[in-house]
Design goal:
Helices cover 37% and strands 18% of the residues. With 329 residues, the chain is of the alpha+beta class. Helix 3 (97-113) runs parallel beside helix 5 (134-149), helix 6 packs across helix 7 and helix 9 (303-314) packs antiparallel against helix 10 (318-328). The longest helix has 22 residues, at 209-230.
Length: 329
């Protein structure tokens, strides 16, 4: 039996007899309300499809947010971020900081709960919370425009047969929107089901793309170990697979001892090397067009590329989409 607790909301799954026993036990000590099959939890709509997949969406809360910020009549767009945004003549006129932070915080909740497709965009606009400008607010509103156009897009949880635990790692390099720091991105799957996605500004400037990718891979490896610990009861097999699209990074991760390219890095940025040498992680090369963590590091120029990766992540058909893209190339 699994139990998920958020404040005073409890979600229980597992053996029916154990669930009923737990309900009897807790109801004898507290006043509780049993609502039956899970349909909504902490603002997330939950639907079970005929193929046994689970569909999660936040359409109700997105609609409320659009109304709260006076954006219910904005024109939808097909992508959450314009890669050319930084090249637009910057309007440095400052806007209301409280409202800007509220909008960014709302977007973060959607991004972390059910919308991995907007996370990297939200991380970028969050960099301007200290002194938000009209240009930054324009980028925030674009994310809301995208959410309006995809308000009913669900995150589909479909594990599949004989699931394995796999992770994808990627990074940008010297992003001008991040003061020349790089952005790490990761996607973690159990079978075809996305279970964790992250987008982070790196703590130190990377001197090369390989170094940025190595820092990102080490961050992904740390999350990987945490997830493996959590998933032990479900039979996670080691080594788990980590997909990276940089051959130099893989060569460094699989090498032994200090080498010239990494001797200046912090210990935590070399963590992936330890995990590979201890055979807890097997690092594999994957072409950039198939790297699903790419969507976590930057705004993608090609609408087709963005939609393919979004579908592979959110539609619960990662394996099939990757095989299709390979067959088309």
């Amino acid at each position: 039996m699994e139990l998920v607790l958020f404040v005073d909301d409890i979600n229980i799954s597992g053996n029916s007899a154990l669930i009923n026993s737990f309900i009897r036990f807790i109801s004898a000590k507290f006043q509780i309300k049993v609502v039956g099959e899970l349909k909504r939890y902490i603002g997330i709509n939950v639907k079970r499809a005929s193929d046994e997949s689970i569909h999660l969406d936040q359409s109700d809360d997105i609609l409320k947010a659009l109304k709260r910020y006076g954006l219910e009549n904005i024109k939808p767009t097909v992508t959450p971020f314009d890669p050319a945004w930084s090249k637009i003549d910057e309007d440095k006129t400052e806007v209301n900081q409280t409202n800007y932070r509220s909008m960014v915080g709302t977007l973060f909740w959607f991004a972390m709960a059910t919308r991995p497709d907007i996370l990297s965009s939200v991380v970028i606009v969050s960099q301007f919370q200290e002194k938000p400008t009209k240009q930054a607010l324009f980028a925030v509103k674009r994310i809301f425009r995208y959410l309006k156009g995809t308000i009913d897009l669900p995150l589909i949880i479909r594990v599949g047969d004989n699931p394995t635990f796999e992770s994808y790692s990627d990074s940008s390099h010297g992003d001008p929107l991040l003061s020349r720091y790089s952005m790490s991105g990761s996607m973690h799957f159990w079978g075809d089901a996305p279970i964790l996605w992250l987008s982070r500004k790196q703590r130190t400037p990377a001197l090369s793309s390989a170094e940025a990718e190595l820092i990102a891979a080490s961050s992904t490896a740390r999350d990987n170990i945490w997830l493996c610990t959590m998933a032990k009861p479900y039979g996670v097999r080691l080594p788990t697979i980590l997909h990276v699209d940089n051959q130099a990074t893989i060569a460094i991760a699989e090498s032994e001892g200090l080498i010239r390219h990494v001797k200046h890095l912090e210990i935590h940025d070399l963590f992936v090397r330890h995990q590979v040498s201890s055979k807890k992680i097997s690092i594999h090369y994957i072409p950039t067009e198939l790297n699903l963590a790419d969507i976590m590091t930057k705004g993608i120029k090609s609408v087709t590329d963005f939609e393919q990766k979004r579908s592979a992540i959110m539609a619960g058909k990662r394996g099939r989409d990757i095989l299709r893209i390979l067959s088309d190339s």
